[in-house]
Amino acid sequence: MSETTAPVTLSITPGKALALRWAGFIALLAAAVMIIAGGTVWGVVTSQLRAEKITVSEDAAFLGGADVAGPFSAFAQADIISTHAKNMTDGKTYAELDKDDPKRATVMNASFLRTSLFTSVVSYGVSAFVIGVGILFGIIGWVILTIAPRRRAAVATVPVTPAE
User: What pLDDT is attached to residue 18?
Assistant: First the structure.
């Protein structure tokens, strides 16, 4: 048996249409700001890493010999710094070394370098997230502007067919 239903109509007043259009414009503006901000931070982090002229150690698990100028190369260099520091101390971390151990200062510097590189990796991740959310806001804003009736219409009727 098949049932037929009449389409439902929604009336959108001029005020609601205006509010919808404003929401669409605001979403598009937010999208632009987020995409530009995320891209700018990505570029600044990349330029700062390049300025340090760091090269991933040849014995790294991946990207050996590459310039540190992105999230993957920064991660690879941080990882190999950890390996080198643990090899130097027979697997001990900075906190596990005796206070008078001569290797303690070197391991401390390695820890600081790793932290700095991981901070850049996190910055890349946040930048990518902001760009992604900006793209999502842009799509939502465009959809809102596409479906919102023009302000000039006194009352717009939008047919809605219920899903079966």
Answer: 87
